[in-house]
Amino acid sequence: MTYLSLENINKIYPGSVQAVFDFSLEVEEGDFIVLVGPSGCGKSTVLRMIAGLEGITSGNMFLRRDWINDLAPSDREMAMVFQDYALYGNMTVYQNIGFSLKVRGDPAQEIHERVMRISEVVELREYLNRFPKALSGGQRQRVAMGRSLAKHARILLMDEPLSNLDAQLRQQTRRELALLHHTFKSTTVYVTHDQTEAMTLATKIVVMNEGRIQQIGAPYEIYHSPANIFTASFIGMPPINLIHGYVEGNTFTGLDNDKKPVMHCMLPQDIAVTDIVMGLRPENIRILQPGEQKANDEHLFSATVENLELLGAEYNASLNVGGYMITGRIPAREEIRPGQRLEAVFNINRAHLFDEKTGLRLGAELT
C-alpha cells in the first residue's frame, strides 16, 4: 500500500513565481526516496510541503489515505533533520535525543531506554553527557539523526544533512545513514544536490530541474536508462560525454563545436530523428592495446591524450578527438602520457541517443 502520496502538487509564491510544477510521487513504506537536482530546482520546497512548513498551492497529499494538505506539522508524525543540525545548545546529547519524547509526555523509563538504544545505534553512547559545542560536525549530525529516530516518526525528512561535512566525514556518515535505514526501515525522504549521495542511499531517486520531475526510478535505472539529456548529464561522475550530430540512414556523424565532422559510426538500428545527441559514459571508452583488434560491436576512433587525472587505479583521461574533447575513465597505466596519440573504442550498444530538439531519450538502449 502507498504510504505517502503526492498528487499533482504545485507551489506558487507571491508574484506568480512557481517553484514546483505538477509534482506527483508514490512513496512505499520503508522507501528511501532521494530528491536530487541543482540548487533552486524545487527539491527543498517539496520537502517542506511534505513537512507542512510550506503551504500547497494546488494538488493533494495523503499519508496512509488521510488527506493532510492542511494538517499542522506537529500532527503529521514526521521528523526532520536540517542542514544546520538545529540542536539545543543548552542541552546534553542525552537531552537532545530524548527531548521530543519528554515533550510528548512519555514515561521517564521509556525515554531512557529509547535514548540508550538510539545512542548505541548512532554510536554516541560515550558522548551522552556532552553539549553540542563539544562535538565535531559529524557527531552533531548523528545527534540530529538520533533525535529524529527517537521520535517514532512515520516519515524521516532530511534536508541536505551532509553538506556541512568534509569529504571524508561525508562518506563515513553516508555509510552510517545507509546502515541506519537498514536497521530501522524508516520511510525517508532525503534532499541533496550531490548525485553520489543519491546513487548510494536511495531505493528510488527523483531527479528534478526547474521545479519539474525529470525522472523517477531506482539508481541503476536512472544511471543506465536516463530519460533525457538532463538526467544523463546530471547523474554520473565524471559526467557523460554528449556528442551532437545527425543521422543519415544508419550512420551517425558527430560534430565539433564548429559543426565540423569529427566522428562517423554505424548504428545497429535505424533512427527516425535526424538531429540527435549521442551520450557516452566515460567507462564505455576503452584504450586499445598495440596490435589489439576491436570487437564487432565497438567503434574505433583515434584520439590525443590532453590530460590525465590519476584516481588511483584509474585515470579520468581527457581525449581530443579531432578538436572535440571527450572524457574516458580508463585503467591507469604508466605508459600512457599527455600528448600521446592512441586508438580507442566504445561499445555502440551501450551508447545513449537523445532527440536534440526535445532532449528525450530515443527508445531503449541500442540492443
What does this structure look like?
- By secondary structure, the protein is α+β, with helices and mostly antiparallel strands.
- The strands form four sheets. It has a six-stranded mixed β-sheet, sandwiched between helices. The protein has a five-stranded antiparallel β-sheet with strand order 13-12-11-14-20. A five-stranded antiparallel β-sheet has the order 15-19-16-17-18, with no helix packed on it.
- α2 (93-104) crosses α3, α2 runs parallel beside α4 (137-150) and α3 crosses α4 (137-150).
- It has helices at 43-51, 93-104, 108-121, 137-150, 167-184, 195-201, 219-224, 229-234, and strands spanning 2-13, 17-28, 32-36, 58-63, 66-67, 78-81, 155-159, 187-192, 204-209, 212-217, 241-248, 251-255, 261-266, 275-280, 285-287, 298-310, 314-321, 324-331, 341-347, 352-355.
- It folds into two domains: 2-234, Rossmann fold (3-Layer(aba) Sandwich); 241-355, Nucleic acid-binding proteins (OB fold (Dihydrolipoamide Acetyltransferase, E2P), Beta Barrel).
- It is globular and about 75 Å long.
- It starts with a strand and ends in a 12-residue tail after the last strand.
